[in-house]
Amino acid sequence: MSKTIQGFSRLSKTEKIDWLCAYYLNKNPNAKGILSQYWNDTKELQQLHDEFIENTISNYYLPLAIAPNFLINGTFYAIPMAIEESSVVAAASKAAKFWMTRGGFKAEVLSTVKIGHVHFTYDGEPDELILFFEEIKSKLIKEAQPITKKMDSRGGGILDIVLKNKTKALDNYYQLHCTFETLDAMGANFINSCLEQFAETLQREFEHHEITKEYEAKLTVIMSILSNYVPECIVEASISCPIADLAEGPGFDAQLFATKFEQAVQIAQIEPYRAVTHNKGVMNGVDAVIIATGNDFRAVEAGIHAYAARKGSYRSLTQVKLEDGQFTFSIKLPLALGTVGGLTNIHPLVKLNLELLGNPSAEELMQIVAVAGLAQNFAAIKSLTTTGIQKGHMKMHLMNILNQVGASENEKHQAINHFKTNKVTHSAVEDYVENIRK
Ligand code: MEV
């Protein structure tokens, strides 16, 4: 054996770890213990997790937290968030509480269309291809019926298939641009299965068609895959109140706050360096809920950032309006989410988190996620334009620093008290712990 291996997947979990410890972790005598301490004692639960993916050796925990008091369209939610970054949940909770007494969040799904493509090349006459496509279009849909039957009966399915000529951008490149309604399912498997069936029908019908014989044209399917860019699957969320109501206690200049807030968002509209960080703050909220509800955060991330760049430069996902003394802050997000299928029925915590949210439909979950993103962005900009983020952030981060320096329970207790009135920095905490040890 060596640092490379054949048949790793066929080894048992212990054998996999033994091999890793022999060739990659041989300097760490604790490696096995670290990995095994995360194994779940409940055999069935461990097996369930082992079966989600391949080659598992342990479990990777993220903390699960709750941001309560979210008033969305008149209903209260306690939102589950799975995230490793300190202060995100505190910020969401703070924003929820702030808006709870100012009318809450409004959210609306604007569209739910999902998209996929059969990408192919064709080297013949474009007009012949158009005629051929029109001839076979109904067959494409008919032959996918065994896949779409159930979805059709629930009111979803294939919406349309359009032939697109992309040869101006790439020689001989065409697409079947296919649109779908997948209801409460994220729909990746459904869409990909339909697309692969379309591809099969397309190729077969082409081989038997006269354009092949007559014009000696060639059609080659390159690939069939859904798109994680879903600009027609959009949710909008907003918060709004009179500018004067933004004040928190005496001495708070609400008008100045609103103006600085507006400028902060405008900066993120025109300056990509700021827009990326601004949107990262949005994604703190979005991803945490996406992960807690068992959805695919990589798909959501990719789609949202493409959407943020749709006008040719990368921009803020949120907008602000100050009009007639009213402050309105809103977000539009492309979100392809599922509340059935995937992990939603099999991961016990995901199931519980969905129950916590009242077993939402996919549209309701889109609204909750958009609200979490908006709340997070509101909290970040509020901190940035008033106190700065470090004060609050470092307070929340204190426990991480204490853990990094190996503080005991007693040292933590003393430090928490001390830093209630002192500025938290990494070196201040280090010095403090060193001092009390002396
Ligand atoms: C930190 O995770 C997120 C922020 O940087 C977002 C922002 O700057 O708007 C605070």
Helices and strands, with pairings:
Elements: H1 13-23, H2 31-36, H3 43-50, E1 64-72, E2 75-82, H4 88-100, E3 106-109, E4 114-122, H5 126-143, H6 145-153, E5 157-165, E6 173-181, H7 188-207, H8 210-215, E7 219-226, E8 234-242, H9 254-270, H10 272-292, H11 297-308, E9 318-323, E10 326-334, H12 348-356, H13 362-385, H14 390-404, H15 409-418, H16 426-437
Antiparallel strand pairs: 1-2, 3-8, 4-6, 4-7, 5-6, 8-10, 9-10
Helix pairs in contact: 4-13, 5-7, 9-10, 10-11, 10-13
Residues 85, 277-278, 280-281, 284, 380, 384, 389 line the site of (R)-mevalonate.
Q: What does this 3D model show about the protein?
A:
This protein is of the alpha+beta class. It has four domains: 8-50, no CATH class; 82-105 and 236-386, Alpha-Beta Complex (3-hydroxy-3-methylglutaryl-coenzyme A Reductase, Chain A, domain 2), CATH 3.90.770; 114-226, Hydroxymethylglutaryl-CoA reductase, class I/II, NAD/NADP-binding domain (Alpha-Beta Plaits, 2-Layer Sandwich), CATH 3.30.70.420; 393-437, no CATH class. Helices cover 48% and strands 18% of the residues. It has 16 helices and ten strands. A four-stranded antiparallel sheet has the order 3-8-10-9. Helix 10 (272-292) crosses helix 13 (362-385). The two termini are 50 Å apart. The relative contact order is 0.12. It binds (R)-mevalonate. Residues 85, 277-278, 280-281, 284, 380, 384, 389 line the site of (R)-mevalonate.
